[in-house]
Specification:
mainly alpha, Helix Hairpins, 5 helices, rod-shaped
Length: 243
């Protein structure tokens, strides 16, 4: 029998990343999760406007219904309060998104500068003291300064994640209140006589808006939690490099 040569697979190559490379990788992950979370609420402004239009139409219908529409008219006032709250939330999210972009861009620039500093430090070490200790101290001081800048930007991104989580919680509250308004309008519709179908349509549309808000929160929720976890790891690694 012919002997068959057994091929032994080579052990996997383990890629060892420098601390700065790890920080850069975690920064990219944090930024991508933040963007995914913001994307989850990208249609919040459109939904707010649609809800505002619905409240106006519902108020007109309530006016036509006379006494049968008095409760619905009051509910449309609550709806407009929710719309105003969503507008405020959206503006807050846009500001957070801008801050996240700025902190991420600054962090990446700082990381590139740190790589250049480390490269200079390596070249200096190879020179075996040819340039004296003065330059070495300047490089060390520059590195510490840039790492401090990096920590500021890392904390800025983490703060954006925390604030986004708070804004998402506010959207969830609006969602719950919109669902309650839809239920109450449906109850009023049952005694509205000729206006029952019209009020039911308003209630159903409001339920759809509440469902859309829930879908936004669900879509962004996982990314926000991921970003929070990555942010803690990133801050720890950046702090280790600073120490």
């Amino acid at each position: 029998m012919e002997e068959q040569e057994t091929e032994q697979s080579a052990p996997p190559v383990r890629i060892i990343r420098s601390p700065l490379e790890q920080i850069q990788e975690e920064s990219n992950v944090l930024f991508s999760r933040c963007l995914f979370a913001f994307q989850g609420f990208s249609k919040l402004g459109e939904l707010s406007e649609n809800m505002r239009i619905l409240s106006l139409n519902a108020e007109l219908a309530a006016g036509r219904a006379g006494e049968h529409g008095s409760a619905v008219r009051a509910l449309t006032q609550y709806t407009r309060e929710l719309v105003n709250r969503l507008y405020v939330i959206e503006r807050g999210m846009l500001s957070l998104k801008s801050n996240t972009y700025n902190h991420s861009a600054s962090a990446l620039r700082t990381l590139l500068q740190l790589k250049m500093i480390d490269r200079a430090s390596t070249q200096l070490a190879k020179a075996k003291g040819e340039f004296g200790s003065g330059i070495s101290k300047k490089i060390s001081h520059s590195r510490h300064s840039k790492l401090t800048d990096l920590m500021v930007n890392v904390r800025g991104m983490i703060s954006s994640v925390e604030n986004l989580s708070s804004e998402a919680g506010s959207v969830s509250e609006v969602m719950s209140q919109a669902g309650s308004i839809a239920t109450n309008i449906a109850i009023e519709a049952s005694t509205a006589g000729a206006y029952e179908a019209e009020f039911n349509q308003v209630a159903n549309t409001m339920r759809e808006f509440a469902s859309e808000l829930r879908a936004m929160c669900d879509s962004a929720g996982g990314a926000i939690r991921d970003a929070g976890s990555v942010g803690k790891v990133l801050q720890h690694k950046a702090q280790e490099s600073l120490n």
